[in-house]
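Recall from the previous chapter that SMILES is a line notation for molecules. Here it describes glutathione.
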Amino acid sequence: MGKIKFYWSIVSPPSRVVKLVLDILKIPADEVEIDVMNGGSRSPEYLKVNPEGKVPAIDDNGLILTESRAIIQYLVEKYGKDDSLYPRDLAARALVHSRLYFDNGSLWPLLHEVYGPLFYGEEVNPDSVKRVQENMQSVEGFLQKNKWIAGPNLTIADISFACIIAGLQPLFDFDISPYPKTVAWLKECSKSIPNYKLIEEGDRVLKIEMDKIPKKS
Ligand SMILES: N[C@@H](CCC(=O)N[C@@H](CS)C(=O)NCC(=O)O)C(=O)O
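With both inputs in hand, we obtain:
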């Protein structure tokens, strides 16, 4: 069995999710850095790996997987020593899935909608900002009953959410202080997710790359 090939970029939050899970599970991987800011994910070579032209992706001995959330589920299921990050209990796992669907279906596309104009120095649509606030209110609701996003323990849902939510303030100047449970949860993530500094480093590098893009106004 050869090593997993991991296609990623530190500027990409979903890539960081996979990198963190690989690190937590101590899975050796051959990393291939893709220069997403300069069209690297659209190269003919990379499109053979992911026809969608996006990072992250893994190649586990011929099994090519894209979509960060599907990848981390697979990694924990296949390589995890226990099920703590991705519980096997039906109800607990259903809650993890529910949160990841919210993350992929609402939170992440919305963030794309906000970052798009920011890349080019354009005004962010106030409707998008309002929907970010609504989404953050939902996250606050998830944290009403539980310390973590999908129950009493840290799971892959926390890692995925953290990689998105941590960037709101530094990249988009979005004030998260009106969401105290989320602020407290993010602090816990910074203490409990091994190598959490990768998230901050990724946002720092992404900000530098965003600032380099010529602005329209
Ligand atoms: N739903 C995907 C999103 C992947 C995604 O949007 N990747 C972006 C970087 S954050 C990308 O590769 N963009 C390059 C492009 O579209 O050319 C996941 O979670 O893996």
